[in-house]
Amino acid sequence: MNRDKMLSELKALEEYDVIVIGGGASGLGTALDSCLRGYKTLLLEQHDFAKGTSSRSTKLAHGGVRYLKQGDVAMVREALRERGLMKENAPHLVHDQKFIVPVYDWWDAPLYTTGLKVYDVMSGKLGLGPSEMISKERTIEHIPNLNQEGLLGGVRYYDGQFDDARYAMTLALTISDYGGTILNHVKVTGLIKNDDEKVSGVHVKDMLTAEAFEVKGKIIVNATGVFVDKILKMDNEEHKRMVSPSQGVHVILDKEFLQGASSIMVPRTSDGRVLFAVPWYDKIVVGTTDTPLKKVSHEPRALEDEIDFILKTAAKYLNKTPTRADVKSVYAGLRPLVKKQKAETKNISRSHKIVVSDSNLITIVGGKWTTYRQMAEDAVDTIERVGKWPAVKCITKEVLLHGYKKGLDRSDVRSVYGNDLQKIDQLTENVPSLKKKLHKDLPYTFADVYWGTEFEMAMTLEDVLARRTRCLLLNAKASIKVAPKVAKLMSGILGKDEEWENEQVKKYKKLAKGYLLI
Predict the structure, then answer these.
(1) Is the full-model pTM beyond 0.90?
(2) CATH number of 3-53+166-240+348-387
(3) What is the pLDDT of residues 261-272, one digit of tens each?
(4) CATH number given to 95-161+244-347
């Protein structure tokens, strides 16, 4: 996947059938579905693939147990089906994860058990395993360092887990495999309209070279997540905001805080939210919050009360109390919830919505990672209807994603490469120095940096350390230490100079410090 080649393809083509704005889950999913239906497709992302919310999730492919309580049965059923399809089509990226709901009150046991049995039934043949009530002793076996004071037992159930940024990269690679054109660091600066005031293309700017140009397209899709209103404002200056953004915060802790392979799910915290503590690689992810925001940012920052809430709530369930000094990284993501009047964000539905403007601009809003494929299918169905094109069957339920491979060790961060792993191993045989680890506290090698830069369109230091690898989230401080060496390797591959290296390191250090608490 070569950016220069993709740019040349873009400039050579007179008109695309479909132009997708936004390189997150919904945009990548839509572009893939569009390609698979035979449409000449272009995807444009102003930063990097999954730069925003799509790399900042709880790392779960799940139906959403909490939404059953809200009565959103249709959305849960949809998400459970899509969870199963994610695993079937990308087993190297999605795996089963065991969850334990600790029970400290006898009244909670039948409530949780009944709700999760409904969850099982709704999963159907794509279920990951049956839920059941387990004893106190078995609960402790699963989570040895769980707070045992007042513990009566637990309810065990299964959901899915994945690496969100790597899944996004795999979608990008799959789009490329099927002939789509995808570009990161290309910003849409305006919409082009024809004499009938219908959108017919986009004004763009290459953020790496500052070159500006136009691209024509028959159908334009706005899949920019929390930023959809900015594109809609380009279309209509009188547009009123339709997204109600909610911030979700997570902290990363060492694995010692959650011994065993099971996750904890707390279905009811002090303010009615849900808290997860989930093993992820050799760390655990603890979150999430649901804080309404008025302004959106490409680099949202956790609020102090969000961090305190997570640490204090986690302390109630773990023997060892996590402190700010224990946090390896803290990250925030913004959810593009469909705006409703006088509704708390934790009660706003995650269901997606497809909107068609008078100009024929198609906008995808809402949804969540697990339902990205269904969102994309609905979007491309809408594209065909708006374009008055003959309907083409959607085949994304059956298409295996790039690197598809079963049987890789799920605990190995390198399993996300699937069958590309043997190609990376070949690199290290030819250049043994690439086998060296980046840092003793990070699970990656210089081969991962080389691969991400040469074959996965990583153009900046952040692209590699935040998303091609997950160094920034797994250990922000260690990622800062390796930044100069990584920048040097990248500069050789990209043909950059020492000035570029220094500028990249400076920018990255400033970014990464925002992920540290001390």
Answers:
(1) yes
(2) 3.50.50.60
(3) 899 988 777 767
(4) 3.30.9.10
